[in-house]
Amino acid sequence: MNFLAPIGSFTLGLLAEIGRIFIFAWEAVGRGAMPPYYWRQIAVQMLRIGYNSLPVVGLTAFFTGGALALQIFEGGSRFNAENLVSSIVALGITRELGPVLAGLMVAGRVSASIAAELGTMRVTEQIDALVTLSTNPMKYLVTPRIVAAVLTMPLLVLVADIIGIMGGYLVGTKSLGLNAGAYIKNTVDFLTFGDVSSGLLKAAAFGFIIALMGCYHGFNSKGGAQGVGKATTNAVVSASILILAVNYVMTAMLFTGS
Amino acid sequence: MSKTNTIKMNDAPEHIVLKDVHKSFGPKHVLNGLNLSVKKGHSMVVIGGSGTGKSVMLKSILGLLPPDSGTIQIGGRDVTGMTGSARDEVLSKFGMLFQGAALFDSLKVWQNVAFGLMQGKGMNATDAKEIAVDKLRQVGLGADVGELSPAELSGGMQKRVGLARAIAGDPEIIFFDEPTTGLDPIMADVINDLIVDCVKRLGATTISITHDMASARKIADDIAMIYKGEILWQGTAKQVDNSGNAYVDQFIHGRADGPIQMDVFKA
Questions:
Q1: CA–centroid distance for A7 within its chain
Q2: For a FRET experiment, which of A66, A139, B5, B61 has its CA 20 to 30 Å from that of B196?
Q3: Mind telling me how many Å the CA of B230 is from chain A's nearest CA?
Q4: At B245, which CATH number?
Q5: The whole model's pTM is what?
Q6: B62–A132: do the CB atoms touch at under 8 Å?
Q7: Sequential pLDDT tens for chain A (258 residues)
Q8: Does residue B201 sit at the A interface (CB-CB below 8 Å)?
Q9: Is residue B66 part of a domain?
Q10: B chain contacts of residue A129, beta-carbon cutoff 8 Å
Q11: Is residue B265 part of a domain?
Q12: Who contacts A17 (Cβ-Cβ below 8 Å, separation ≥6)?
């Protein structure tokens, strides 16, 4: 019967961890809704999380849009459906690949840096020092990062949508010989507001996950450099997996009903 | 070394009182029914070896590590398990110098010193900077140091900035966590002098934890010895040499032989 013990302790550990994450999120968001608000921190974090992620997200979207155009052209040509390239690229980018790939790239960039920064602050007692200076560390460190990520991720994904579609357009018209005017017309005609807005809604959820995982693991890191390294890894891995899982759930909820 | 402070009468009221405080981390019992009382305006130094529960005791009082049982009173009010704005109000009376100074490395030195005034108390930057520069001067640092980042400072300077930050809000209670650890003996004495000086100026109640006896003798009005999460002995600084307590004697003379057995000997 001993083989059941590890399963049991794993399940208990997992549930306890989920509980701790929910309490942490509540402390950050529920209590964070009460004053004081640290506007300056929110602005600084928006710059760090959003603006500084633009190059990474833009390049990812550009190459993904291009590769998507190539694949759809290759597949479509088997059914004489090359003219579908533009609309499928647009749908694929806005609904799925824009938010997911931007989310994963930002998770790697931002969750890691948040976890490392907060983790270092934890192990050097800077978080304890905040408490002795009449400043709630949750409100000062965590809430601004979550707010900033939730606000900037949709903007980043909007940029990714545009650049991704442009990547598909450039590959489609310059390399695959598709008609430029028809490409743009098809994109505009087929794309609906719902395609874009659902992607932006996903982006906001991913922004929440990215900041929450970075903050949670950083805030609870222990034991010096090794602990900070572990926190960073855990932040990126858990944020990435949660993004993919939540993406599936949101896709199922947003699109299968209609 | 003899301190002549007329204000510090022995019948001063109790300011910080810990009663039967217990704290465990899993199977490890760190505080085992700790009792400690500190009189208002007094400098209490808690001595004890590594891992005896000194830091956990301070963090329990601050509410960073809530005790499992027992009570903590500050100024006659029970603060055990206090949360929210009540806790914030209690904490606004505290200042603390951390062992590694714990300066915010993303901020300039003066912003560190002014942090509690600006973020915690909502003071504007101009006024807060003025106070910060004044507090830096009190710990022997010029206004030019205020413009540096903490990473550019030596360990001794970081400790002094940490001290300036701890006293910036004119706290009623100040904690010093190993104030002289990691400093050369001369800088350690400079810090000791600054602590005595700053505390006198503020009239604050202080608890220092240290294993540096030279520091303890210099800054203490009262001394308590912690061992295995309990206070074994408490008395005035003068009594420490005649405590009649074998544990205290062993510690203050730094002997390997005695009632305190280090784990390394249990082979």
A1: 31
A2: B61
A3: 24
A4: 3.40.50.300
A5: 0.87
A6: yes
A7: 688 889 999 999 999 999 999 999 998 888 778 888 889 999 999 999 999 999 999 999 999 999 999 999 988 888 888 788 889 999 999 999 999 999 999 999 999 999 999 999 999 999 999 988 988 899 999 999 999 999 999 999 999 999 999 999 999 999 888 888 989 998 888 888 989 999 999 999 999 999 999 999 999 998 888 999 999 999 999 999 999 999 999 999 887 654
A8: no
A9: yes
A10: 96, 98, 102-104, 165
A11: no
A12: none
